[in-house]
Amino acid sequence: MIIQLVGIVLISIIAITVIIDIVPLFRDWLSRIHIGRYEDKQIWNKSITKVGLKWLHTTPKIKVTDHTRLVVIDMLKGNYTKTAIQHWQEAALLLGMSEYLVKNDDKEAKKALMRFLNLKFDSKGQWLETPKHVDTAILAYAVMKLGFIETDRYKLALDATWDMIKDHIGHDGTVQYRTFMKGYRYVDTIGFVCPFLVAYGIRYKKDECVDLALKQIKAYEERGMLEGHHIPSHAYEVDDKLPLGLFGWGRGLGWYAIGLIDAWNELPSDHTYKAILEESVKRFAKAAIVFQQANGNWNWTVTRGECRPDSSTTATLGWFMLNASKIEEIADMCLDSANQASNYLMKVTRRNGAVDFSQGDTKDIGVYSMLFNILPFTQGFCIRMMNFNHGFKVVKR
């Protein structure tokens, strides 16, 4: 009898483990049937926006590991997902929805966003969970971009975010990715903190914030760029100024791109740093376009045509190019590039409106995911791009 019970328990455990492994794979296979059938950008925009709003409350968990077998072990160990990963996913969705609401008075969307904010902040506008990592700054920036709310309502949370960033400033005067990684500077950090620093600094007249954003960007340009091609490495070592990881990691280009373009956007036209960052925008736009593939995408390693396309890279660089097209000198080439990017992203959108084939979470410097799937971050930037300026105008080179 005991042997039979043990046998039943073992069989049940094996069955549950197999189901946990197989169900996601089967679901992905099923959802990719008839992928890329969107042809009308307005219909596509409505579809991706609907999914993005839904994900704001039920954000898909992004795996930390690449394991597709015995996934239950990662879940039990707490290695399946991390809170910090969710912050930049949620931020992208918020940024997308904020752009959507600029020209759409969607009361239901506003209610959904307020429900989200009430899960993050208390009645005084302070974080319910004290921010510990710089990833939080992009979420704070996204809150500042919600035009239908009074930003000052969340002033305590914004102040706490600035205090957290100050705690991450290293001996070289730039922001660390993590306080226990004092000797490295990551390209991700530019995207995480620079837009917030400029928006917060301009709004509350804190020049030191804007100064820090400029310093973060310029330091990376000096120490973390591939000479002759102006694309970033994953990170660099502060004291020895050695580049670390891969030059041309796609999402690394994306992090640099959104940090730069959003910081530039937040500066008033008469600000001293506006022209300085505009030169950086022009230089990076010309560099990145060189690596855009014929189908309109950028690959996960942009310098290799043989690598897999990455939707997260394509969405973030598409957003960058669309904004950079406001600069007359590079307007045509950037608008054409953004058009090509959006055309590609339509082709990799599932029939339910979820944009597919984004690279998974990075494990370490130089250790990259080989899983490509849905990613709220990508979804948010597709929404943001498509609602930034209703309708693209195709410009031929």
Automatic annotation (TrEMBL):
Keywords: Hydrolase, Membrane, Transmembrane, Transmembrane helix. The chain crosses the membrane at residues 6-26. Signal peptide: none annotated. The keyword Membrane applies. Gene3D superfamilies: 1.50.10.10. GO terms for molecular function: hydrolase activity. InterPro entries: 6-hairpin_glycosidase_sf, 6hp_glycosidase-like_sf, Glyco_hydro_88, PolySaccharide_Degr_Enz. This is Glycoside hydrolase family 88 protein. It comes from Paenibacillus alba.
